[in-house]
Amino acid sequence: MSKAQVFLKEAKSELSKVTFPDRKTTVASTLVVIAVSVLVGVYLGVLDLILSKVFDYIFG
After folding, report:
1. What are phi and psi of 21, to 5 degrees?
2. Would you write out the chain's pLDDT as a tens digit for each of its 60 residues?
3. What does the pLDDT read at residue 1?
């Protein structure tokens, strides 16, 4: 058996051990990721605006 065949056989064996989340868990996790991404984006946007105003005032 070639190394590639052994690898594929072992990969298939390992994938059979994996338990994938159900649809409800996947949707909930996705919503959490989206919400956190939006919050971080808003936070960084506000921080950027504030720092821009401060630097414009200092150097400007």
Report:
1. -70, 155
2. 899 999 999 999 999 999 999 999 999 999 999 999 999 999 999 999 999 999 999 998
3. 82
Only one residue has tokens 């390992």, namely 14
Please enumerate in sequence order all residues whose Cβ is within 8 A of that of 1, keeping only pairs 6 or more positions apart, or say none. 9
Task: Give the Cα separation of 33 and 27 in Å (integer).
Answer: 10
pTM of the predicted model, to two decimals?
Answer: 0.69
How far apart CA 58 and CA 36 sit, in angstroms, is 32
Residue 59 C-alpha from the chain's centroid: 37
Cα-based distances in Å from 18 to 1, 11, 40, 44: 25, 11, 32, 37
Spatial distance between the Cα atoms of 20 and 35, rounded to a whole number of angstroms: 23
